Amino acid sequence: MYFVQMMARDFTDRVLAWYDRSARVLPWRIAPGSAETPDPYRIWLAEVMLQQTTVAAVAGYFARFTERWPTVGDLAAADDADVMAAWAGLGYYARARNLLACARAVVTDHGGRFPDSEAGLRALPGVGDYTAASVAAIAFGRAAVVIDANIERVIARHRLIETSLPAAKREIRAALAPLVSDDRPGDFAQALMDLGATVCTPRSPACGICPVMADCRARGRPDIERLPVKPPKKAKPHRHGIAWWIERDGAIWLIRRPDKGMLGGMRALPGGDWADDPPLESGAAESGIVRVDHGFTHFDLTLTLVRREAPPEAPPESLGAAGEGIWWPIAELDAAGLPTLYRKLTDKMLERDV
DNA sequence: CATACGTGGCA
DNA sequence: TTGCCAAGTAT
């Protein structure tokens, strides 16, 4: 019993000592040992942006958001379209919709302050198990069990957990819970994430410099990269679609996609549904064709742009799937906040036109 | 428990 | 070039 506690403390201390030496410097992070108080708004915003998204991709967005909306109250008061446009290019757009819903819930239901408990945070829109635990630990010093993909990898290897994800999560949590630092839970969580991101990497882990290599059960194994075991991936189907370039007086017609589904709530070019089969010759034969290939998480898409005149008797409004649209000046297209798929298409179209 | 949901970087 | 992967959440 005492031995187990001693080993746990030893693991925790070694991880924290390594973090004190090796912590990454990140815009949303307070350096270990600093006297600064974390701002729950900035911690939460960064955690949401970082969901399934790399540090490099987030940095610029985090800077722009915090500059434009310095507090959760500022964000709650923002226009939906401005926030969606500011999120454009970052992906997983449900996060942006939930971000606004969460900010407004904090203002409306919590007096403008984030709940300081894991359970309170977990009840907010877009805040799942990971984000609730990480904000509780980092912003409020709660000894929450934080588990992200980095920490899963570190623990699965250290304890040689062979169970496949997501079933392995239960064992990982059980192994991690007794190791959590009561004194520095936020630093402990960030330390393990840094360790996973920079030392215990998916491929070619640097076991030689790992602070917990002494008792790592996977250390030295030629198949260490196998852990954590993941389920086999399914093949991605290929789909096709048409988008319309409708131009008038130096502007093009943009619509807003429905909240649910792909690119939900984002501004986009009008067009037809995406189908399993290529579009018919008749549509593709028109002038002004540009084509892009784009890979989504669960399917690949070939999207063909067709120049189209809005017939006088059929107002362009009817061409937008959401029935909602706007004439957007082509010269200001950068500010439209188009997701990458459409951004690729318009970039290519303008390059071609010049 | 499985699936939908973006994007960019790296080997 | 193709596949893998990243501080996950909602349903």
UniProtKB/TrEMBL annotation:
<dbReference type="InterPro" id="IPR029119">
    <property type="entry name" value="MutY_C"/>
</dbReference>
<dbReference type="Pfam" id="PF00633">
    <property type="entry name" value="HHH"/>
</dbReference>
<dbReference type="GO" id="GO:0006284">
    <property type="term" value="P:base-excision repair"/>
</dbReference>
<dbReference type="GO" id="GO:0051539">
    <property type="term" value="F:4 iron, 4 sulfur cluster binding"/>
</dbReference>
<dbReference type="GO" id="GO:0034039">
    <property type="term" value="F:8-oxo-7,8-dihydroguanine DNA N-glycosylase activity"/>
</dbReference>
<keyword id="KW-0004">4Fe-4S</keyword>
<dbReference type="GO" id="GO:0035485">
    <property type="term" value="F:adenine/guanine mispair binding"/>
</dbReference>
<keyword id="KW-0479">Metal-binding</keyword>
<dbReference type="InterPro" id="IPR003651">
    <property type="entry name" value="Endonuclease3_FeS-loop_motif"/>
</dbReference>
<feature type="domain" description="HhH-GPD">
    <location>
        <begin position="49"/>
        <end position="198"/>
    </location>
</feature>
<dbReference type="Pfam" id="PF14815">
    <property type="entry name" value="NUDIX_4"/>
</dbReference>
<dbReference type="InterPro" id="IPR000445">
    <property type="entry name" value="HhH_motif"/>
</dbReference>
<dbReference type="InterPro" id="IPR044298">
    <property type="entry name" value="MIG/MutY"/>
</dbReference>
<dbReference type="Pfam" id="PF10576">
    <property type="entry name" value="EndIII_4Fe-2S"/>
</dbReference>
<keyword id="KW-0408">Iron</keyword>
<dbReference type="GO" id="GO:0046872">
    <property type="term" value="F:metal ion binding"/>
</dbReference>
<keyword id="KW-0411">Iron-sulfur</keyword>
<dbReference type="InterPro" id="IPR004036">
    <property type="entry name" value="Endonuclease-III-like_CS2"/>
</dbReference>
<dbReference type="InterPro" id="IPR023170">
    <property type="entry name" value="HhH_base_excis_C"/>
</dbReference>
<dbReference type="InterPro" id="IPR004035">
    <property type="entry name" value="Endouclease-III_FeS-bd_BS"/>
</dbReference>
<comment type="function">
    <text>Adenine glycosylase active on G-A mispairs. MutY also corrects error-prone DNA synthesis past GO lesions which are due to the oxidatively damaged form of guanine: 7,8-dihydro-8-oxoguanine (8-oxo-dGTP).</text>
</comment>
<keyword id="KW-0326">Glycosidase</keyword>
<keyword id="KW-0378">Hydrolase</keyword>
<dbReference type="InterPro" id="IPR011257">
    <property type="entry name" value="DNA_glycosylase"/>
</dbReference>
<keyword id="KW-0234">DNA repair</keyword>
<dbReference type="InterPro" id="IPR003265">
    <property type="entry name" value="HhH-GPD_domain"/>
</dbReference>
<keyword id="KW-0227">DNA damage</keyword>
<dbReference type="GO" id="GO:0032357">
    <property type="term" value="F:oxidized purine DNA binding"/>
</dbReference>
<dbReference type="GO" id="GO:0006298">
    <property type="term" value="P:mismatch repair"/>
</dbReference>
<dbReference type="InterPro" id="IPR015797">
    <property type="entry name" value="NUDIX_hydrolase-like_dom_sf"/>
</dbReference>
<dbReference type="Pfam" id="PF00730">
    <property type="entry name" value="HhH-GPD"/>
</dbReference>
<comment type="similarity">
    <text>Belongs to the Nth/MutY family.</text>
</comment>
<dbReference type="GO" id="GO:0000701">
    <property type="term" value="F:purine-specific mismatch base pair DNA N-glycosylase activity"/>
</dbReference>
<protein>
    <recommendedName>
        <fullName>Adenine DNA glycosylase</fullName>
        <ecNumber>3.2.2.31</ecNumber>
    </recommendedName>
</protein>
